[in-house]
Write a structure and sequence with these properties.
The structure holds two protein chains of two kinds. Chain A has eight helices and seven strands. By secondary structure, chain A is α/β, with parallel strands linked by helices. Chain B is built from ten helices and twelve strands. In chain B, helix 9 links the parallel strand 11 (314-320) and strand 12 (345-350). The chains are: A alpha/beta, B alpha/beta.
Chain lengths: 198, 395
Amino acid sequence: MRPDLEIIADLIKPGARVLDLGCGEGELLAGLQAEKQVNGYGLDVDPDNIAICVRKGVNVIEQNLDQGLANFPDDSFDMVVMTETLQSVRMPALVLDEMLRIGQECIVTFPNFGHWRSRWHLFLKGRMPMAPHLPHDWHDTPNIHLCTVKDFERLVRDKGLRIIQRFVAGADHRNRPRMSLMPNLFGAIAFYRLGRPE
Amino acid sequence: MAKHSAHEGSVGIVAPQRFHATGEFALQCGESLDGFELVYETYGQLNAARSNAVLICHALSGNHHAAGYHAEDDAKPGWWDACIGPGKAVDTNRFFVVSPNNLGGCDGSTGPATLNPATGEVFGPAFPTVTVRDWVRSQAALADHLGIERFAAVVGGSLGGMQAMQWAIDEPERVGAAVLIASAAKLSAQNIAFNEIARQAITSDPQFRDGHYRSANANPDMGLGLARMIGHVTYLSDFGMGQKFGRELKSGNVSAARDVEFQVESYLRHQGQSFSQRFDANTYLLMTRALDFFDPAGECGGDLVAALERAQSDFLVLSFSTDWRFSAARSKEIVDALIAAGKNVVSAVIDSAHGHDSFLLPLPRYISVFKAYMDRLAAAAGSAASTEAGSADAP
């Protein structure tokens, strides 16, 4: 499993009800179903991803996050996960609210626009940053709501959400000690485990 | 010309079989039948563990002839040949497929057009009302007869999907997966309205004679044809119809206008006429009634989640973007209820221009998801087969 997904998988209790928003090829859920007997569902819109999920035996539901999550009742999941998808939804703040309405806790990961590579790219070249974790050209990117670690924490603070756990990783999804010193500068991928306001 | 029996991807030449159930068969309406017959076809081989059986449930105008050909000179294969055959979504190299004609149908199973053993005359309008639940029970009797304890999957589109859902609810131990394609947990008022117009078209035809047309050697061709025309319009999408017919004139010239001028008119009339030759009017009324009354949630105080909680099977729910007769929103209701009930469910909304009829067509994305799902079931059924065969061989 991808290193970040392994970290997420470790946080999920056996038998939990898990919803994975933007589940891609279903790697996380396939692993969780095999190892932790979770009752998991993944949402995705990519036809190829859906067929791949089906072959893995993942409960994949074709649903566009931008059309809302109103079909899921309050508290219907123990954990709602969204990996590197927050930046591509139309209303990230609303999706965050919905995740913590549906689930007791949520895990959100996103590419950190404050990473030194992005800054360097913009500073030196004067152009929209492209990097291993941000491979798209500005006009052809699904990433319409990029943010930095600081931006995200400000949103979390404004909403009064609880940060249960956080860390950053490189574009290879591995965490190195120096990154934790200056996460907004050295983290390529940010990871947050959040709870409802106290 | 290649023979049908040699067509790649086809089950080839098939022959219907007949199952006769004896004894009283009590129907949900309170009436009962003194035994009944179901005509059915099978494709593929039942494995030693009897774990690879798939039941195909047909829709309103379907029958047991789902795949292959009855004769070398048949113009068309069975109604779901796009999805059933060697290497297809329902792979007959891996599954044993059972496809019956429903009770009350008009293609050989006991129904309004068959003889009532009590009177020696055709049932006609006296044939009792049957429900989706009755169909499930009669199909379960066929499964018993074939020695099938549990189906790896019960599969159906439209009204067939409703049967698959009812199977999952009524016979939870006997269904591995329920595959619901372009279906709904109940009909909308608009849908019932279309059925009512079709029924009115039939019953208002003077040749209908209160359903006793057979004994009068007549047939409500006009009414049945009209019912089919209405149905057909609702099975296609506006876009799909436009693509297929546009505003093409048969003569290509307005000044030469005759009675049937637009291509779509001539197409619908042809559909109506050929349907009235092959389908029984009383069966049409019976089938549309079964559709209208289907509402498993109704028996649980309107709570679909509670109704589906009884199911033990996995579910595949597919719908099509331009289907307005059984819209994607109806499938989503089923999916939401299944998630709330904690069931394993896969669902996809297939982009298609062809409306409700999409479920009959070999659309690549549809087939890709459908086949991926069925292949997984086949793999599971196969391993169960080898385990059981292995233990049976052990000293």
